[in-house]
Amino acid sequence: MSLNTVHLIGIGGYLPDRILTNKDLEKMIDTTDDWIKERTGIEERHIIAEDQVTSDLAVAAAQQALDDAGVSIDDIDALVVATTTPDMIFPSTATVVQSKLGGKDFPAWDIQAVCSGFVYGLAQVDGMMRSGMFKRVLLIGAESMSRIVDWQDRGTCILFGDGAGAVVLETSDASQANGIIGSVLHADGSYRDLLKAEHVRRPAGPDARLLAADFSLDSAGAAAVEMKGNEVFRVAVTKLGSVVNEILAKYELTDSDIDWLVPHQANIRIIQATAKKLKMDMDRVALTVASHGNTSSASVPLALNELYRSGRLEKGQLILLEAFAGGFAWGANLLRWSK
Ligand code: COA
């Protein structure tokens, strides 16, 4: 059986209108703009509107990606949403997005790997498409993290933001150069207590609408992200350093071959450590952390979208995507830009 090559043919992003700055946070918790900027690189983040849910963010990003690709929802064979903050426990947010976009019949499902959701999703979809299962797939990372952080916990609430990023992927025959080269994925559940979100008041599961109703920005958080920040930081730097080396070795490439690093946007210091490991200047790194914060599974496609829209990507350039997440779950993808 001959394998296909998978190309990214469209990309889009969406950020809700409301912006929460570090100065705004100074009025809510015991923190300062300087502390947040120095320790994380974050200056502001977008916050979902009260009448929005994760699927609304996903739909807006997906529509932009479809338009960018010049295709419609009727041309899509499968739809995957990576999210930690689904609209409901079930049905999947992907089926909600499919319906809101006017799609029918093709398969749609969610993937949950927290901040690594998009990197995991790209690996999964690439494998399915290569084997000929689908011709054109819509892959989205969408999150409303503001609904699951405890807005009284200064160690975590400063980090997260809301948004969505989406890509349209298409197969062509394997003789085509460029496209997705491959991926590596890892998880180690023995770290699961270092970064997690549990419903402490109501065992409701991940239902963002319940959270929206009960736990607005102004109330004490109840379904809360809990994190041992400095331990997460230490493991993230180590695992990301090794996963970028691993993926380059796997595909017989070296750090000097990489044109762009598109990292998960958790903390500028983690990003700088990975760039240093790859001997890359920071001007070759897609950075959105200052204005988006950590948008979990949306952060990698949003950063790629901003890089694309800045006009700096050129056909044939080698791009390394990477992410690290609760679980811990982490991974990386390599692709040659083909748009
Ligand atoms: N404002 C001011 N001070 C704060 C603060 C805030 N928002 N949050 C924590 N502090 C304080 C702590 O209470 C602590 O004070 P103490 O020394 O008096 O006890 C001090 O700052 C240092 O805390 P620490 O947690 O050790 O800081 P840090 O340098 O590790 O930075 C994070 C904290 C969260 C920014 C950092 O650990 C981090 O980014 N970790 C990784 C997070 C991440 O990437 N998560 C997602 C992975 S997908």
Q: What's the arrangement of secondary structure elements?
A:
Layout: E1 4-14, E2 18-21, H1 22-26, H2 33-40, E3 44-47, H3 54-69, E4 78-82, H4 93-100, E5 108-111, H5 117-130, E6 136-144, E7 162-173, E8 179-187, E9 195-199, H6 208-214, E10 223-227, H7 229-250, E11 260-263, H8 268-277, H9 289-292, H10 299-309, E12 318-325, E13 329-336
Parallel strand pairs: 4-5, 4-6, 11-12
Antiparallel strand pairs: 1-7, 2-3, 6-7, 8-13, 9-10, 12-13
Coenzyme A (COA) is lined by residues 31, 35-36, 39-40, 115, 154-155, 158, 227, 229-230, 232-233, 236, 266-267, 270, 294, 324-325.
Please explain how this structure is put together.
By secondary structure, the protein is of the alpha/beta class. The protein has a single domain (1-339), classed as Peroxisomal Thiolase, Chain A, domain 1. The protein has helices spanning 22-26, 33-40, 54-69, 93-100, 117-130, 208-214, 229-250, 268-277, 289-292, 299-309; strands at residues 4-14, 18-21, 44-47, 78-82, 108-111, 136-144, 162-173, 179-187, 195-199, 223-227, 260-263, 318-325, 329-336. The strands form 4 sheets. A 5-stranded mixed sheet has the order 1-7-6-4-5, with helices on both faces. Strand 12 and strand 13 form a beta hairpin. The longest helix is centred in the C-terminal third of the chain and has 22 residues, at 229-250. The site of coenzyme A (COA) has 21 residues, from helix 2, helix 7 and strand 12.
